Amino acid sequence: MKKVLVALLLTTGLVFFNTGCKDRGDLDDIIKIIKKKKQNEKKYDCPTMKLNVGDKCKTRDGKIGKVDRNCNCTPIDAPKYDCPTLRANVGDKCVTRDRKVGKITKDCKCEAVDANKYDCPTLKANVGDKCKTRDGKEGKINKNCECETSTTSKYDCPTLQANVGDQCKTRDGKAGKITKDCKCEATTNTPTYDCPKLKANIGDKCKTATGAVGTIDKNCDCVTRGK
Predict the structure, then answer these.
(1) Sheet with 56-58, edge to edge strand ranges
(2) What is the pLDDT of residue 211?
(3) How far apart are CA 124 and CA 127, in angstroms?
(4) How far apart are CA 217 and CA 227, in angstroms?
(5) Rounded to an integer, what distance in angstroms lies between the CA atom of residue 31 and that of residue 207?
(6) What is the pLDDT of residues 149-186, one digit of tens each?
(7) Helix or strand (DSSP H, E) at 66
(8) pTM of this prediction?
(9) How many helices (H) and strands (E) does the chain have?
């Protein structure tokens, strides 16, 4: 009985083997179709990089980053720019493809600047350009064509680091005060005061009864900031 069963199994195996050999061409075709299907399933957000948005990547200088929506590898600890691809902010200086000096536009393009047209002709600079204050600190040109740093933004006249009415000295060494145009204007030899009793002008530094430092207001009172 065992011999009969073994014979039957061998016969069945040979039948399937012969059939498989005949249909080998069909089997190859099926394998090819499956492979193509798998390839089509591998759709990337960034085909060139073969990566998706948010995937880990390495920048050109070897830093670890993530793939952004523009298919750029942005370092995780990278500073935030208006134009991440250019690693620059709107108003920053740049060089166009034809080697002309320009600045970054709102569309994140480097647009050539007419050398004769400046936001601040006297400074030959544009709003947002880098600059240096008189005391050598780095800053940026503001809308008033003044070199402003993060620490000078609280002044009426950031470039001078002073407020309107503050005492100053003119170029020829005379005593004066800061005007609304942020210029040091010499006072007369017999000065007239906004507040004659105090012998002081509006905006001058003063001390309150408690000894706190303040400035003279329009009512000729010594007021500290924040009040």
Answers:
(1) 56-58, 64-67, 73-75
(2) 84
(3) 10
(4) 11
(5) 91
(6) 765 456 778 777 778 888 888 888 788 888 888 888 88
(7) strand 64-67
(8) 0.24
(9) 2, 15
